């Protein structure tokens, strides 16, 4: 049995047969004697069939059957654990150890006793227990794990999450899209494998459970609760069967997660290997070592020109960003894979343990919040995955140096865009470049273009293949743009020269082709021949460069659509034709020269006779004859100018012919004189005619269409032209008439401008007619400027100006008066509600604003009244001055009555004062009725002016109401004076505030708003919730509250109560500071700020005076006391460094301010060696004492003593006390004391 068991399970244990033989050697064989009863102390021992002793079951037959049965049962339960360990893929070494320590220890316990006597049947049972059952269980577990679970885990671990591209690069965005689709498909497959593995695990557990007895299956369902958990920490025992199953599930769940991690890491590692490249600076070293460094790039991109830079598209940063997105997509693969059921069970177990730790008071990490992490988060936080992600997060960005080298190699092309082509061409042309210089420039860009074409089609930057096709295209375009810019400049230059040549050829050719019919034709032909001879050299020098320029443009394929390239081919041919035409013309001139010369001489003789006749006729009947009227002289000028122009043309022709044929040129001095005279006369009479025509046109302009500014502009232009005429013309009659015409009209223009003003009314035109004696029918449709100019305007210039000025002034007065009338026809009263009685008040702000506006209107009307041009509007102005002034007076009285009515209404309507002043209250009732009638009228007639001065109602009623209200007020003032004498603090507040207090005297709560006016720092009092008039405490502005006893309603009693409370608290503070164990901060926290300040002053006075008294016997008492005061100051300062409320900080800052002064005083006493409390240096200080015998708190300065007033001051700031302020306080104290002495 043992041999088979050892071979099948590979366990090492003592063979049963050996043990049996060993036990048989040790056993003894004796014949069974007859058993006699055993008795102990006379009592027979009971005889039983079986008995358990030291773990062995003994029977009366000694065949060990009972013991075998017990071992069989124990062995079955122990073998369960062995089967479970095997399911976890535990190594064989551990399985042997477990078998020897757990299983074998049960099966072979005390085998030396029973092994030799065991029956063959029992030995077989143990053999089957050790072999058959174990084989079956192991087979089920191994089959499930290897064939189903492990296969699923292996499939998961080898699942690729990225497209595995090895052959050719691809665009980054395409890679991203394929990666996303691959991850989606892989996620579905991984979810299926994970689910299948979990199902297989559950089936394996069920199969194991079928081999177990019901009693062994306790808690093997659901949460697999531990059978023996820790009572306090709630941890699992890890020994019971449910814990074993629980751990089995945990290990498989962990393997599932690890499979996902391996799949993720495998894909990320592949991506890292594909992206990992050797830096360019080490490529040569690797090549020298014979190591392969070539690798197909993963990504494909392009290098592009983005002026002013050459850039990578997409850039390395963009590729890194997309790569990071791909990595995140891979990590998010598991977000849709559900967690195993074990994860939820384990999370609940951890929460139970965490709660137990909290209950035990453990504040360690175990008590921190435990969250159930999804699989994608577990993957992202796994150290191996995190490491891979970190490596990938900058793997592409690290290629910036190589990318910079690549882009740096292209930097020399930057000259194509760093400079402006137009500017460079402009600078180039300024140097007057020659054709070779043009050729050099264009050829340089052609060479650069060839260099660009030779650039490689792609370059590799790490794992990215960058194509250069787009870059090369852009660079070539830039290069061609530069070539075209210089080519265009050369084309313009050559085209200009060619146009110049063709123009010269056309003009000369056309002239030379004309027939030579007369002397003028001959002269023109001779001029063209001379011009052709002069331009021959220049044309020859231009034709060659022009042809070469267009040849250069053609050679570099620079074509322009202006057609000049085609014209250049016929340029030389046209120049040859012109030369032939010149020779032909020269021959013709030689042939006709004799006949032309004879005709010229005859024509000159006839021209001389004609000129002499023109001289005599011009001198006797010309436009320059004295005494001619300007109009007649202008007509003669036109006739003689036509004759002169004809003679002058002949003169030019004959003079040119004489010069052409070499004859003496005849001189005509009188003809030149007449030319000069006619030129001057043309200027004079041309201007004269323009002025006469313009002025005549002005007269026909309709009066309504008159534009004086345009006329002035034209006249100004005529004056400028007259001033520019030569001095010789200024003595002519036409010049004098012209100047007078313009000057007269210029003088009339200002009058016309004033008369054309829109302010001119019918009354003003009537006055102008009376002045000039001329009728002005302005309303007529045919009324024009001529009708105005017929009147003697310049004769009555000043009177007309006065009428026009008065019209403008009257227009201004009328406009302002209309504005005032329109404004005060729209202003209405605005009303405000008064309590619950309706709108019984004029709105104060609006009414005051309108009164101010009314005063402004009155000022405007007053200025109109003083204007000497107000005659047409004076009655209306006076009427509105009266209305507005009366309205102002009525409204002012109205507001005075309203203010008094409001002031007294609160007193005499429903208040306590009305009961004490019955006569005044009755008078006020009548006033109140009249007031309501006034306000009702204002609502009915809301217009301010109409309501105020429409009739005499308000002007008579308001003074009466004001008088009656003043009577009521006088009576009320006497009443208030009597109240102030009863409670003097009423003198601190105004009459309205006092009336508000007295008017609601029956309500003690209304005093709250006026407490600060009556007391130094009593801001409010706190009333009892049920007892309406019982005051519980009072508070300062800072919010400090002081408890208070029962106080009645009236303010005098409140004042007494406040003082009594402060004094009571001061007494308690005195008792507290008398305690030797007093702690300053506890004292300040226990008492209000005012009493705390008084306490520190009492303490200082007591300690200082005590030190002075003991200073004669104790030499160190003064320094000790001074140090004590310093310690108190430091303690107070230390408090200000803490976190204090606003009121607490104010309190301690005030204490420091006062105590600094007290310490300075004592410092002075120590420095001056004061040794007596009667010394004046001490007596002159403010000293605070609490006299317990008489229950008084007093303040002493020198020999004067005052009681502490117990006025509540609250928690307020104090000014810093300086020697000057201290002296002033002492002086005031002494003056007050002297004033109290009897005279």
TrEMBL record:
Superkingdom of source: Eukaryota
Major localization class: cytoplasm
Subcellular location: Cytoplasm, Cytoskeleton, Cilium axoneme
GO molecular function: 2-oxoglutarate-dependent dioxygenase activity; ATP binding; dynein intermediate chain binding; dynein light intermediate chain binding; methyltransferase activity
Residue ranges of the TM segments: 94-112
Residue ranges annotated for the Dynein heavy chain linker domain, each copy included: 671-1069
PANTHER family per record: CYTOPLASMIC DYNEIN 1 HEAVY CHAIN 1, MALE FERTILITY FACTOR KL5
Listed name of the protein: Dynein heavy chain 5, axonemal-like
Organism field: Alosa alosa
